[in-house]
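Async update (no meeting this week)

Hi team, since we skipped the sync, here's where things stand on the single-chain job. The sequence we agreed to prioritize is pasted below, unchanged from the tracker. I ran it this morning and attached the output directly underneath so nobody has to dig for it. Comments welcome in thread, and please keep replies under the output.
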Amino acid sequence: MLGVQSVHRGSFRHMERHATALQVAAAVRSGEVSPTEVLEHYLSRVDLLDGELNAFALRDDERARADARAADDAVVAARRNGAELAPFAGVPIPVKDLYDVAGWVTGHGSVAVSDEPAVLDELPVERLRWAGFVLMGKTTTPEFGSVSATECERTGITRNPWNADRTPGGSSGGAAAAVAADMAPIGHASDGGGSIRIPASCTGLVGLKASRGRISTRIYGVVGASTNGAVTKDVADSAAILDVLSQVDHGSWVVAPPPARPFAHEVGADPGRLRVRLSVENALGLPVDPECDAAARSVANRLSDLGHDVVEAAPVWPDAGVFLEKFITIWNCLAILAPVVDESRMEPHNRAAFDAARATDAFVYLGADAELQRESRALVSQFRADPYRAGAADDAGFDLLISPTMSVQPILAGTIMDGVDQMATAPIMNAVPMACYTSIFNATGQPAISIPAHVSGDGLPVGVQIVGAPWREDVLIRVASQLERAQPWAALPVL
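Output:
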């Protein structure tokens, strides 16, 4: 087991542990450290720790070093010419291995895909390059990102830096393990059912899932449930990378309305007095671990102390059976987006999804889509669209929903596949307690953030989810940063 000690996050000076991406960017901009020095620091951390954690699916150190040297030159030129640097110039970041990086193989956590290198960068990867990030490799994911723990035949089991016997969650578990272990200052991630928020909760990080249409990709997936993002060490990094990733793409099928100002400007801004609901109850009626319950209540109490109107009351949830059935129908049809070349080599639960998708005719699919839209609209209508407009205080509804991020603490590593020999879909069912609070907001398209609110008696981090109205990432960022200032997060592990 990896040892865990506590240390407060500090500045990047002298390569201090757990520097944020913005701190690294500031150190590069000031000349305190060069992009090459930064990269070598993090590569040395990967050399030291990844043999046990298994967070990286692909390393290309020489290409990363070449990109860092190019960033060195850009910094020198900018300083000489008085030019503005890209916002994250020289900051290393790994890319989740579900997304194409030109020249690198996209493994998708699967032995059933081609090993031909990608030809083009995926659109979010283009955004990362534009922002000055140095791509340092690719992080592990379960096969096709389909379950909430990061383990698969292609790359094996990824482990949690807080306790190597536990999972870092999924499907962005490699990214979360890398950032929590300080093998990277920030990690690219994505979320189709909780895959940013769940790993953030499992590893003591911040994980923001943006609204549907906020972050574009080249292909608009089924119902737009999935979105790109990042796992970060603080709220400021989450806001700043959202500004990078959310640049408008006019070719996108769904585009969120632009924010009133950069999301980075919402960090530390006064959120005003908001109406907040606390719901420890989840839509599926699953039992909740007492540590997860306590974490949500502690955040609700702190918000009350900060002057918000907090009421414990669950929203009117959709019918659990109907919602789950329709969501699984849609989820199975996501399987067709996987670039499979040999179906016989797929893991059993994903082969079952392929088979289910083929058996789903257009009438069933469209009916499930329509039902999800109806149920989503009913849930979204309970939120106030704009808490800041004149007269909003008199409107019905609430601004934020507080809940646990998961109903359980991080599960034992190596257990997500338990029972697959008896029932192909067992891994999906094993993941439900981890995703029962998160997936519903992928269907509704609402923004949601997991914050590191608590450390359990077992020494494991426990996250709390805050959900806002559609397109109100600004409200989430204001409130999350308010909580961060009022009650600093539990420290990350020192390894």
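Quick observations from my side:
The chain is about 35% helix and 15% strand.
Residues 1-11 have pLDDT under 50 and may be disordered.
Reply here if anything looks off.
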